[in-house]
Amino acid sequence: MTTVNLPQSFPFQPVRMSVARYHQLVAAGAFTEHDAVELLDGVVVEKMSKNPPHRLVTRKCDLVLSKLCPDGWHVQNQEPITLQNSEPEPDITVVRGRMEDYSERHPLHNEVALVVEVSDTTLVTDRYKSELYAMAGIPSYWLINLTDRQIEVMSNPQANSQANSQANSLGSGTQSRYTDCQIFGSGDLVPLMIFGQVVGQIPVAELLP
Question: With the CA atoms of 74, 31, 56 and 49 taken in that order, what torsion angle do they form, in degrees rounded to the nearest 10?
């Protein structure tokens, strides 16, 4: 049998689109509720299927955070948020206001206190997403790393100034980052922060499968 050496990367660039154009395609029926896609940095990408541990941890995180959220905040489970060049669907999001406040639009970056991604096979993608969340100025990002059984808590977002100056373009957020990252193991308590205020302490073991 003959083998063929495939290229290591695509010999072309993907077409980037704005969030507004993405919304137009959704409204036109280009993507249905059965299409597992999201917009990341102007590119429509396919989301990975979720295995049982991922599904379990997402549900546990939803229940725990919902109990701790103060008045004026609620938890979204695998629902979109609208950023400058992206419309990701984090596993968990802590959002300002009530669910009814978003009956006609998705939450914006300044209405989000925390995004959580549960990661096993998606670890590389979820680390990349940290750059997009940092560029949007979202205060805190949790990466629940199932492979290493730990929670990586990222805070103090530092947005790339050049990316911010191109607010009407489709520039990349690859140079934005969180300047602080703390690792919490299975024996630790992870603090839930809502815009700088600790509203609860959660045993990491309670969130792991």
Answer: -150
Q: How many domains does the chain contain in total?
A: 1
Q: With respect to residue 42, please indicate whether it lies within any of the assigned structural domains.
A: no
Q: What is the CATH number of the domain that holds 182?
A: 3.90.1570.10
pLDDT tens readout for residues 38-59: 999 999 988 888 899 999 999 9
pTM of the model: 0.85
